[in-house]
Amino acid sequence: MDLKALLEAVREGKTPVDEALDVLKHLPYENLGFARLDHHRRIRTGFPEVVYGPGKTVEQVAEIFEKLAGRNANVLATRVSPEAAAAVRARFPDAEHDEVARLVMLWRDRATRGRGKIAVVTAGTSDIPVAREAAQTARVMGSAVDETFDVGVAGLHRLVDVLPQISSAAVVIVVAGMEGALASVVGGLVAAPVIAVPTSVGYGASLGGIAALLAMLNSCASGVTVVNIDNGFGAAYAASLINRSHGE
């Protein structure tokens, strides 16, 4: 139960004061020993704390997910191992596991937030896992999303064919590895803000995505901003906040 719902329940006499006090003991955060869960995150930013999978045990991921699910309609875990995903779904059979994006989503509130849509565009097929992380994150946060794959600069006619669809978006997320050139091209063709995501896709001199990162940071196209290598989640979070600023 979130704070607003709790206060309304007390006002309406549905929740006893002593029970409300017990809930408030765990606010603004709940100490699990290995984690301190920020239950006020959604009140401050509009979306709950997100579970980052790497470095956590299967049990830790599942327990954090369960605690967040007790107080939020939607819960998201990123970079989740198959074992951790299975542990979460054992507790929440309605949770969705996107194996490509490596996400687990509990998606109980499917209301649309923001009047625009977010376009997620990849340079190549190999960039799809990062793009799917972005697309699914944006959807769970309430944005409408269009996905367009494999329209990189090696064949610009492919991009031209889908440009009307991309141009209609409120925000465009461009996911590209190799030399990362697609972000500059799209940034010079659309009026929407472009969030560029460099990926670690590429041969040796791509340096695990650093080449694409530097290219995107040095883009001559105005309106292009850049997130960290392979950070589809971060791009989608920022894009969703921008999209919400268009109104609900």
Which secondary structure elements does this structure contain, and how are they paired or packed?
Layout: H1 3-11, H2 17-24, E1 29-31, E2 36-38, H3 41-45, E3 51-52, H4 58-69, E4 74-78, H5 82-91, E5 96-98, E6 103-107, E7 117-122, H6 128-140, E8 144-148, H7 156-167, E9 171-176, H8 182-187, E10 194-198, H9 210-217, E11 224-226, H10 232-244
Parallel strand pairs: 3-4, 7-8, 7-9, 9-10, 10-11
Antiparallel strand pairs: 1-2, 4-6, 5-6
Helix pairs in contact: 4-5, 6-10
Pick out its properties:
10 helices; 248 residues; 5-stranded parallel beta sheet; 4-stranded mixed beta sheet; Rossmann fold; 19% strand; 39% helix; 2 domains; elongated; alpha/beta; single chain
Verbal overview:
- This protein has helices at 3-11, 17-24, 41-45, 58-69, 82-91, 128-140, 156-167, 182-187, 210-217, 232-244; strands at residues 29-31, 36-38, 51-52, 74-78, 96-98, 103-107, 117-122, 144-148, 171-176, 194-198, 224-226.
- With 248 residues, the chain is α/β, with parallel strands linked by helices.
- The chain has two domains: 3-107, no CATH class; 117-244, 3-Layer(aba) Sandwich (Rossmann fold), CATH 3.40.50.
- It has a five-stranded parallel beta sheet with strand order 8-7-9-10-11, sandwiched between helices. It has a four-stranded mixed beta sheet with strand order 3-4-6-5, sandwiched between helices.
